[in-house]
Amino acid sequence: MTDVAAVEATVHGRVQGVFFRDFVSRRARQLGLTGFVRNLPGGSVEVIAEGKKEHLEELIGYLKVGPPAARVKEMITSWSEYTGNHSSFKVRH
Fold first, then answer.
1. Is residue 1 scored above 70 in pLDDT?
2. Nearest-5° Cα angle at 19, 51 to 12
3. Residues 6-55: pLDDT tens digits?
4. Cα gap 15→43, rounded to integer Å
5. What are the φ/ψ torsions at residue 29 (nearest 5 degrees)?
6. Where do the domains of the chain lie?
7. How far apart are CA 87 and CA 93, in angstroms?
């Protein structure tokens, strides 16, 4: 199954308190991805997602922009193999 993968993204900028996690969760679910999104100490947001590689690439495009109130300054991504460890996409608190 080479068309599936996993990606970890850390998004920096004004991404907390602007509905970023909700935005990511809705987009990921629409794309059929699994994983989670959560705020990190220091003001960044972490996204762990798995699914079809083309859908992950589309999600990364959304992460670069974010919701209207967000200001993404930097995003660091790391690709890895699909694990199947997630049954859905969740917002972690």
1. no
2. 75
3. 999 999 999 999 999 999 999 999 999 999 999 999 999 999 999 999 99
4. 7
5. -65, -40
6. 4-82
7. 18
Q: Using an 8 Å Cβ cutoff, are 39 and 21 in contact?
A: yes
85 in active site: no
- The single residue of 39, 71, 85, 92 carrying the catalytic annotation is 39
DSSP 32: T
Given the residues 21, 26, 27, 92, the one annotated as active site: 21
**pLDDT number for residue 2:** 66
Determine whether 39 is an active site residue.
yes
* Residue 12 C-alpha from the chain's centroid: 12
Give the CATH number of domain 4-82; options: 3.40.50.720, 1.20.1290.10, 3.50.50.60, 3.30.70.100: 3.30.70.100
